[in-house]
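Before the break, one more example. Copy the sequence into your notebook; we will annotate it together after we see the structure.
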Amino acid sequence: MSQPPISSAELYARAKAIQPKIQAWRREIHRHPELSFTEHRTSGLVNAELISLGVQTDTEVAKTGVVGHIRGGDGPTVGLRADMDALPITEENGSVFDSGRPGIMHACGHDAHTAMLLGAATLLKELADEGRLPGRVRLLFQPSEEASDDEGKSGGMRMVEEGALEGLDAVFGIHVDPTRDVGVVASRPGPLMAAADEFELTIRGYGGHAARPQAANDPIVLASNVIQAIHQIVSRRIDPIESGVITIGQIHGGTVNNVIPDTVYLNGTIRSFTPTTRQLLHDELRRACGVAEALGGSFDLKIKLGYPPTVLDPEAVAVSLAAVGEFLGEEKSQIATPVMGAEDFSYMAQVAPGSFLRLGTHNPAWPKRYFVHTSTFRMDEDALSIGAAALAASAVKWMQEKR
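Here is what the structure looks like once it is written out:
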C-alpha cells in the first residue's frame, strides 16, 4: 500500500517541534566562529550530529566540508546546501551567545544555515526511517563561501570539482535576508545574484615637490580623472536595461603632504548578471584607465574573475516557492528582485537545477534592520524552523513530483 503524500505543513510542524534543538545548534556554532577553510570545530559538530541521526557521512570534502547521505526510496536524488564559514569581524551585539573569538563573527548567517540544514536532515531522516522518503538526499555542508584559498577556489567550487554534486537531480540552498520580515521567503527564476569580479589598478606618473607640480606628473590628478571615467561606464557604456556596477573600494597614494607621489593604487569590484555585460564592463574599465595614458602617465590593471552569476532553474524555483507557500501562505512566498551580491552557490546551480531561497529574518518589532556583514548583525530565531522546513519541503516536493 502506497504511503500518503508528505505535506509541507507536516514538515513545518515537525520543524517547529525541534526549534529548540535548531536554536541550540545555531548558538553553539555562533559562539565558536571559524574563518574560511578552518571550520574544523563546526564540521566536527555537524559530522557528530549526522552520525547520531544514523546518517552516513563523508568528511574532509573540499578540505573542511561534510557530505551526508540519507537514503529513502528510488526516486530523485536532491542536494541541500549550507555554508559554514564566518567573517573577520568583531561582534558588538552583547547577547549571551556572542562570538567567543575576538575578530571573528558569524555576521552573514552561515551559523543559521548550518543549523537549519541539520534541522532539515533530522526531518528527512525521520521520514526515511518511517519508510516515507521517496528519494535520496545529499547534505552539502560547504566550507568557505566568503573567501577563496591560495588557488583561488572557494568551498562551493571545490565541492563541485570533487564530485560532491555528481548525480544530483536538483540542489536547493537558503540564505538569511534581513531586508525581509521573518515569515517571508523569496526567490526568482533566472539570475538572482550577480557575478563579482575584483580589480587592482596602479596609476603611475612621476613625483616631485608639492611646490613645483609643473615638474611632476601628479598620479593623484591622473587617478581623479580615471575615477571620473570609471563612474561613467555604467551610465554611458552599457544598455540602460542591463544592470552593472563598478565600485572603487580603496585608494592609496602619497605619504606626506608636501610630496607628489609616483603612484596611486586603487582596487574595487565589478558586478554584472550576464556574460555580455560582464565582458563589456571589463573592456570599458580598461579603456577608462587609458585616460591616464592620454595625460602622460601609465597604468597597470589586473582583473580577477570571481563568482559567476547565480542563475536559478525556473522549475526548481517554482517547486521551492510552492513548498514554502503551502505552510506560510502564498502571499509569504514571493518573487525576489535580483541583488548585486555574489554567492558561490552559483557553481552548484551550474551543474544541477538549482533554487536559492531568501529567508526573512527581521523582527518587525525591532527599531531597525540588522544587516549582514556588520558587527551588529542579528536575526529573529523563529526563522530557523521556517528555514529547516523550507529546505526539507523543497526536497520532498521535488521528489514527489519527479518520481
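The mean pLDDT is 97. The first helix runs from residue 8 to 17. Try to locate both features in your own notes.
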